[in-house]
């Protein structure tokens, strides 16, 4: 029998979400989780990075401890190096062990330890953690380390972590994310969004292989959009942050080589926006570009996908888990052209899109766009079937919620 999840409380640890522009793909899962739990408390854990404007809407039974978080940031910024070192002293042995086994820089790991100890103490002062049944972390880096500290002190908690991509692959020169080996000792399960991610994580932490499983996220099922381009213009959509790993500039460079009429719309912003605007200003007359920037809510993007004709989603990232943008577009029957990296091949194949090489040239992308058949109905049907089969958020989030409240 599935565990009861009535009158239950779960603590969700994130990097920034729901503050700022990051982690937009948490929204559908949070909406589903909040409908299954009596109360959800979200605590962002990033104490150092600049805060971007905006806060995402959350369901009524979701409590965001933004004031606690802001106060923790303020205290951290004023804390002396000596005080931070004293916070991390209980992790000196673990840091030395990680350096020896995983080549992790000791000052990096000690800094992470101080960071996590500070925030875990702030959390314990802000809430009565004994009232909570579970912790869920997004993702398997700082939030998970904080979750592990709380789990160690409060063993009644069920502790699960989501894992995506950037929280799995360590920085150059190290063999693991700081304190990920320690997290493995306390986490009950790690739900990785792709089999590719599972394989990588199990190779790094073979002793914890049984805890590392595929746990797909997903999106809400939609009706297949009836809209198609009927005027001969190919309409392309892309959705991502404008940062180096997403290579949005490569899309612009590719479009300069396409001769057919094409309209490209990119949703998202980031530090590379000025360069992108400059590149798009140089595109030929047959290419029309729209850069709406930051999307305030998921409702807005759904309105866009539902009401306008789209022929392709384009994603040319260097690294991915299983992009939520692909899942969203597939839910409306919009095929995708994506790079063959990370978990992309687990959602896109020739039946519902096209896999580019991992590092495509502008010429390779342009050739596919030039030859794309707008009227391929079988591909649209395959896209929507793929989403409903593997990436149904209500089904996947219920499975995750049931796992969260298993007996410790």
Provide a quick synopsis of the model.
This protein is of the alpha/beta class and 408 residues long. It has 2 domains: 9-218 and 393-404, 3-Layer(aba) Sandwich (Rossmann fold); 234-390, Glycogen Phosphorylase B (Rossmann fold, 3-Layer(aba) Sandwich). Helices cover 39% and strands 16% of the residues.
What does this structure look like?
With about 400 residues, the protein is α/β, with parallel strands linked by helices. It has two domains: about 220 residues, Glycogen Phosphorylase B (Rossmann fold, 3-Layer(aba) Sandwich), CATH 3.40.50.2000; about 160 residues, Rossmann fold, CATH 3.40.50.2000. The protein is about 40% helix and about 15% strand. The chain has 15 helices and 13 strands. The strands form two sheets. It has a seven-stranded parallel β-sheet, sandwiched between helices. The protein has a six-stranded parallel β-sheet with strand order 10-9-8-11-12-13, with helices on both faces. Helix 2 crosses helix 5 and helix 9 runs parallel beside helix 10. The longest helix is centred in the N-terminal third of the chain and has 21 residues.
Tell me the layout of helices and strands.
Blueprint: E1 9-14, H1 26-36, E2 39-44, E3 62-64, H2 66-78, H3 81-87, H4 92-102, H5 106-126, E4 134-138, H6 142-153, E5 158-163, H7 180-186, E6 189-192, H8 195-204, E7 212-214, E8 234-239, H9 248-255, E9 262-267, H10 273-280, E10 287-293, H11 298-307, E11 312-315, H12 324-330, E12 336-339, E13 353-356, H13 362-371, H14 377-390, H15 393-404
Parallel strand pairs: 1-2, 1-4, 2-3, 4-5, 5-6, 6-7, 8-9, 8-11, 9-10, 11-12, 12-13
Helix pairs in contact: 1-15, 2-5, 3-5, 4-5, 5-6, 6-7, 9-10, 9-13, 12-14
């Amino acid at each position: 029998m599935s565990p009861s999840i009535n009158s239950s409380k779960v603590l969700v640890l994130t990097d920034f979400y729901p503050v700022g522009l990051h982690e937009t793909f948490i929204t559908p899962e949070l909406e589903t989780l909040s409908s299954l739990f009596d109360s959800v408390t979200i605590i962002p854990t990033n104490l150092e990075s600049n805060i971007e404007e905006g806060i995402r809407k959350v369901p009524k039974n979701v409590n965001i401890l933004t004031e606690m978080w802001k106060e923790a940031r303020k205290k951290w910024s004023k804390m002396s190096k000596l005080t931070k070192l004293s916070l991390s002293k209980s992790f000196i042995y673990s840091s030395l062990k990680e350096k020896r086994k995983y080549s992790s820089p000791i000052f990096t790991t000690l800094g992470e330890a101080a960071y996590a100890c500070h925030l875990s103490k702030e959390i314990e002062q802000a809430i009565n953690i004994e009232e909570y049944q579970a912790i869920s972390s997004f993702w398997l880096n700082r939030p998970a380390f904080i979750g592990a500290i709380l789990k160690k002190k409060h063993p009644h908690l069920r502790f699960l972590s989501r894992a995506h991509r950037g929280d799995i692959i360590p920085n150059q020169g190290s063999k693991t994310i700081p304190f990920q080996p320690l997290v493995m000792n306390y986490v009950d399960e790690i739900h990785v969004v792709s089999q590719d991610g599972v394989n990588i994580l199990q190779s790094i932490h073979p002793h914890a292989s049984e805890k590392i499983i595929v746990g797909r996220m997903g999106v809400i099922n939609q009706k297949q959009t009836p809209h198609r381009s009927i005027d001969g213009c190919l309409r392309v959509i892309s959705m991502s942050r404008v940062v180096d790993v997403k290579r949005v500039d490569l899309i612009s460079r590719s479009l300069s080589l396409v001769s057919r009429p094409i309209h490209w719309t990119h949703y998202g912003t980031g530090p590379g926006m000025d360069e992108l605007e400059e590149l798009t200003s140089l595109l030929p007359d047959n290419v029309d570009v729209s850069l709406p920037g930051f999307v305030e809510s998921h409702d807005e993007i759904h309105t866009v996908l539902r009401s306008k004709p789209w022929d392709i989603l384009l994603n040319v990232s260097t690294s991915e888990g299983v992009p939520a943008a692909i899942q969203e577009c597939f839910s409306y029957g919009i095929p995708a052209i994506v790079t063959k990296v990370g978990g992309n091949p687990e959602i896109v194949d020739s039946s519902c899109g096209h896999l580019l090489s991992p590092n495509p040239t502008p010429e390779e992308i342009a050739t596919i766009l030039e030859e794309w058949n707008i009227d391929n109905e079988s591909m649209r049907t395959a896209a929507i079937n793929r989403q409903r089969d593997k990436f149904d958020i209500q089904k996947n989030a219920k499975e995750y919620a049931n796992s969260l409240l298993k007996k410790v």
